[in-house]
Amino acid sequence: MSIIPINRVEHVDKGWIPPKNLAFAKSISMVPVGVPEFSRLAMGVPILLVKVKEEFYFVAVMGLETNKNLLVTHDGSWLGNYIPAVFRSSPFSLMLDEEGNSVLCLDDSLTKIVANEDGERFFDDNGQLSKKLAETM
Fold first, then answer.
1. Do the Cβ atoms of 94 and 104 come closer than 8 Å?
2. pLDDT tens-digit map of 25-74
3. What radius of gyration, in Å, describes the C-alpha atoms of the chain?
4. Phi, psi dihedral angles at 35 (to 5 degrees)
5. What is the predicted pLDDT for the residue at 1?
């Protein structure tokens, strides 16, 4: 797995292939969640506060065993009522650069970068996030 920063210069004529289902999440038993998601998640899964190094994070528990998500079927369908944002935004994430600015990144273990005509575009003709990428994020 490598995380690739996406930018308007290198990726102006590139795109990605969106996941067809949530099969990539079958082995993820806990995911970070934001407070705005609590009301949608709390009726279906436990939410825990965990400490990683010196920071605390909220996570949703999707399985009782490591590497097993009980809410994803063998064919990648979701069994719950609400899909956590971290799964909906996949294969993208936001990372911080050295100056503390958010940078859009792509996990290339979940998809590959392709030519615009072979997938969904990263950017539109005006250099703004494409509609599909804006919806995903």
1. yes
2. 999 999 999 999 999 999 899 999 999 999 999 999 999 998 999 999 99
3. 16
4. -55, -40
5. 63
Q: Mind spelling out the 3-state secondary structure of the chain?
A: CCEEECCCCCCCCEEECCCCCCHHHCCCCEEECCHHHHHHHCCCCCEEEEEECCEEEEEEECCCCCCCCCCECCCCCECCCCCCHHHHCCCEEEEECCCCCEEEEEECCCCCEEEHHHCEECECCCCCECHHHHHHC
Do 121 and 132 form a contact (C-beta atoms < 8 A)? yes
- What is the arrangement of strands in the sheet containing 120-121, beginning at the earlier edge strand? 113-115, 14-16, 120-121
Q: What is the pLDDT at residue 59?
A: 96
Token pair 């503390």 is at which residue?
100
The structure's pTM equals 0.83
